[in-house]
Automatic annotation (TrEMBL):
Residues 223-491 form the YjeF C-terminal domain. One of its GO terms (molecular function) is NAD(P)HX epimerase activity. This is Bifunctional NAD(P)H-hydrate repair enzyme. Keywords: ATP-binding, Isomerase, Kinase, Lyase, Metal-binding, Multifunctional enzyme, NAD, NADP, Nucleotide-binding, Potassium, Transferase. Residues 15-213 form the YjeF N-terminal domain. Its EC number is 4.2.1.136, 5.1.99.6.
Length: 491
């Protein structure tokens, strides 16, 4: 893949525009289809060398054209190939019709296919452009193939996955491997599409990078390239205040653990020093558990206002174990003009007063990051969450625009979105990150990055990625404490 396309995500509409621009520029569209089909056949032979038979299922559009080319190439290599079509192949038009004409294999109706042991299915029914339910005849084949447990190699995207949202449209193949072209699509990285795509291989079929970049939006797969300019090494003459002072605000004596966890992670994440702001009644319990973390009594808005006079305190984390209510709202509104991670109870406190928060963020010009999981997102952005037409990426972007904050929409396919529309999708997180305290760890890492001077978007993206890597390092038995011990360095 061309270096300029690394980590790029495109939507199906953007990919369609890229294909059109390529054709308009004089590139022969059939040559691109042929490159795609040959890439599929090469992947099939490489991945499934012991297949008894390759069963190529061709759809009524250009994805089917890729399949016809792949089928012919597989047959020429000496493999046994069976070819099935959805619909009448004589009705194909354009490059799809040319591909069918160039394929010398007999084709029969897809409804007659009965899976056999040793088969490998090459799924070329529908690609990333699918935005409706699969036809019933295709759904029947999906069910038969799934029941047989034979492997599936998907062309572009497993048929049945919506290329924009990653959702299943009626039914979907579960692919062992997917070959797509030019760049991943959003449906490859959003759940459940990501899980159903298997291993993803991106093949450059020859469209110039400049044409891709001209149509692609600012959407990426999350990775170090997003924040590398802010993750430089430490200077020899640095000191703790240069590395950033992070403040984490604690709840009452019965709920101090979450804030202490975020504070401890703040140090591991790179802040030069971390202070836990504690209400008077929780000072003793917090003091008994802290060593490197400093402790300051913050019981009221007046206490917080006085602390804010110290401009060396760069960033704040508010929410883990803090408690829902007026105090959380008052504190959050005071912190909107600073670098702030608003997590958990901090967000939930604004369920009935979100406009005040959003207006304050917009007016203050601070660097605010909010970190909702599915339930919190639905409480704070109910109209966005209820819009079934939107993908998770689009929901995060809408929430960021509405709130004027960077949104970390958590889950197995965490999306980080900025009010500008910029977004990344995270793909490195293992499922065992779903453990108590995991969100507190993430909040602490984001806070550490904000304290070090990262812009809010990059702070959040880097933290989500490091959080995922920590989960991989900690392994299946990960707890919040072992996650904190497993956070990788930024560089």
């Amino acid at each position: 893949m061309h270096d300029a396309l690394q980590d790029m995500l495109v939507t199906p509409n953007e990919m369609a525009a890229i294909d059109k621009d390529a054709a308009d520029s004089g590139i022969d569209s059939f040559s691109l289809m042929r490159s795609a089909g040959m890439a599929v056949s090469a992947a099939a032979l490489r991945l499934f060398p012991t297949a008894s038979r390759f069963v190529v299922l061709c759809g009524p559009g250009n994805n089917g054209g890729d399949g016809y080319i792949a089928a012919e190439a597989l047959a020429e290599s000496g493999a046994q190939v069976a070819l099935f079509s959805l619909g009448d192949p004589s009705k194909l038009r354009g490059d799809g019709a040319k591909a069918r004409s160039a394929c010398r294999l007999a084709v029969v109706d897809i409804g007659t296919y009965e899976p056999k042991s040793g088969d490998v299915v090459v799924d070329a029914l529908f690609g990333a452009g699918l935005a409706r339910d699969l036809p019933n005849s295709a759904q029947d084949v999906v069910r038969r193939v799934d029941a047989s447990r034979i492997p599936v190699l998907a062309v572009d995207l497993p048929s049945g996955i919506d290329g924009r949202t990653g959702e299943v449209r009626g039914a979907s193949f579960t692919a062992a491997h997917t070959v797509t072209f030019i760049a991943p699509k959003s449906g490859h990285v959003l759940m459940p599409g990501r899980a159903l795509s298997g291993a993803l291989e991106v093949f450059d079929i020859g469209i110039p990078a400049r044409l891709v970049a001209a149509r692609a939006s600012d959407l990426r797969i999350n990775g170090p390239a997003i924040w590398k300019q802010y993750a430089g090494g430490l200077e020899a003459g640095t000191h703790k205040y240069k590395r950033g002072h992070l403040a984490v605000l604690s709840g009452g004596p019965a709920s101090t653990g979450a804030a202490r966890l975020s504070a401890a992670v703040g140090l591991v994440g790179g802040a030069g020093l971390v202070t836990l702001g504690s209400p008077p009644e929780a000072m003793a319990v917090n003091a008994s558990h802290l060593t490197a973390i400093m402790l300051k009594e913050i019981g009221s808005a007046a206490d917080l206002g006085e602390w804010l006079q110290d401009k060396r305190v760069i960033a704040f984390v508010l929410g883990p174990g803090f408690g829902v209510g007026k105090k959380a709202r008052d504190f959050a509104l005071m912190l909107c003009d600073r670098a702030l991670v608003l997590d958990a109870d901090g967000m939930s406190s604004f369920q009935q007063a979100r406009e005040e928060l959003f207006e304050k963020i917009a007016a203050s010009g601070g660097q605010v990051v909010m970190t909702p999981h599915e339930g919190e997102f639905a409480r704070l952005f109910p109209e966005v969450a209820a819009d079934a037409s939107l993908s998770k990426i689009e929901k995060a972007q809408a929430a960021a625009s509405l709130s004027h904050a960077v949104i970390v929409y958590k889950g197995p396919d965490t999306v980080v979105a900025a009010p500008s529309g910029r977004a990344v999708v995270n793909v490195n997180a293992p499922p065992w990150l779903a453990t108590a305290g995991s969100g507190d760890v993430l909040a602490g890492i984001i806070g550490a990055h904000l304290a070090q001077g990262f812009p809010a978007f990059e702070a959040a993206a880097a933290a989500v990625w490091r959080h995922g890597e920590a989960g991989n390092r900690a392994g299946r038995s990960a707890t919040a404490e072992t996650l904190a011990q497993s956070i990788p360095p930024l560089t």
